[in-house]
From TrEMBL:
Start-end of Polar residues biased regions: 25-44
Designated name of the protein: ABC transporter substrate-binding protein
Lineage of the species this protein comes from: Bacteria, Bacillati, Bacillota, Bacilli, Bacillales
Source organism (scientific name): Ferviditalea candida
Chain positions covered by the region annotation Disordered: 25-52
Keyword Signal: yes
Keywords: Signal
Transmembrane feature ranges: none
Signal peptide residues on this chain, from the entry's feature table: 1-27
Length: 355
């Protein structure tokens, strides 16, 4: 019995020892990671990357034809030459109204909602729509016949407000062309004009032509159109009633110039036009300039506003500086015109005699 007592006591002591060892293992603290195994942490805050400023420009244009397209390309070239690159720090949204006046308003409203940094309006109808809708964003215009008459600005020297730009009307261009017709085409007694009277710029051009021709006792017969599809019919209505045709700076008519050229060539009628680009397309003669250069001048205005902080209202309206007679020799042949040495001598730059 005594042996059994000692054995039982021994077993109880052994169990207590084992239990104490187990509790000691569970309570032992876990080994912490060595300093070299912990992720590196910097106490200094990471510098924020500076976001590149992207300038958003909206371009609205009444129709596409070579003169207006050249003005747009000149504008974009000036921006590129001064550090604004599309796809990098420049975003350009170009909208063409397809000759629809109501589209001009929709485009202007879209640009106002998009919060553009600057708007370029090419042509009088497009500029008029933009100026009505946008008063808190810089607006530039180009290829405008009469900025004052179109009520785009109240002063050419100091426009004020948020609008300025360039006009495509050299003060002497129309007068010189009409003087050229009177002096070199003495048999021309009546001139036909096809025009869209809904374009304010066209009305101004026609009025100036009528005043200049009246001084030479040359009459004017007009054919009115409302869209480009009517231009050919308008030109044909003049056949037999006029000795020559003049195409003013009328976007509706210029967009369909080829149909005017067809009528002129078929009926051997000299076709005088309002711009040098239209001479290149097949008109016989015009006093003009390069629309690319006009657009480039407008682009430099944009640079002054976007980069140099100038206010549009402090930038005077610009005009073409160079004016020269341009004649198309192939068109002359097709329209039954004999180009004399006297005519050629009136061209300053030989490049403006287009073979």
């Amino acid at each position: 019995m005594k042996k059994l007592y000692h054995f039982t006591a021994f077993m109880l002591i052994a169990m207590l020892v084992l239990s104490a060892c187990g509790q000691s293992k569970q309570a032992a603290p876990q080994e912490s990671a060595k300093p070299s195994e912990q992720p590196a942490q910097s106490s200094a805050p990471e510098p924020k990357k500076e976001e590149k400023k992207v300038v958003k420009i909206g371009i609205t244009q009444i129709v596409e034809h070579p003169s207006l397209d050249a003005a747009r390309n000149g504008f974009l070239a000036a921006l590129k030459d001064n550090g604004f690159t599309e796809g990098d720090n420049l975003q350009v949204d170009t909208q063409i109204a397809q000759g629809d006046m109501s589209n001009n308003t929709s485009i202007a409203q879209k640009f106002a909602a998009d919060k553009k940094d600057l708007i370029l309006a090419i042509s009088t109808p497009s500029a008029q729509a933009v100026v009505k809708q946008i008063t808190d964003t810089p607006v530039l215009f180009t290829a405008i016949t009469d900025p004052l008459g179109a009520k785009l600005v109240s002063s050419l020297e100091k426009p004020g407000g948020n609008v300025t730009g360039t006009s495509d009307t050299h003060p002497e261009a129309i007068t010189k062309l009409m003087d050229f017709i009177a002096s070199q085409f003495p048999k021309v007694k009546t001139i036909g004009i096809v025009a869209n009277e809904g374009e304010q710029n066209s009305l101004i051009n026609v009025k100036k032509a009528e005043e200049a021709l009246a001084k030479h006792n040359i009459k004017v017969v007009k054919a009115a159109v409302t869209n480009s599809s009517e231009v050919k019919q308008g030109a044909e209505s003049l056949v037999g009633r006029v000795d020559a045709i003049y195409v003013p700076k009328d976007n509706t008519v210029v967009a369909a110039l080829e149909s005017m050229i067809q009528v002129a060539e078929k009926n051997k009628l000299p076709l005088f036009v309002g711009e040098k680009d239209s001479v290149k397309r097949g008109g016989f003669a015009s006093y003009g300039f390069e629309y690319f250069d006009l657009g480039y001048t407008t682009g430099k205005m944009a640079v002054d506003i976007l980069k140099n902080g100038k206010k549009p209202g402090d930038i005077p309206v610009g005009f073409p500086e160079n004016l020269d007679l341009a004649i198309n020799m192939k068109a002359a042949k097709n329209e039954g015109i004999e180009v004399t040495d006297a005519m050629k001598s009136m061209v300053k730059d030989p490049k403006n005699i287009i073979e």
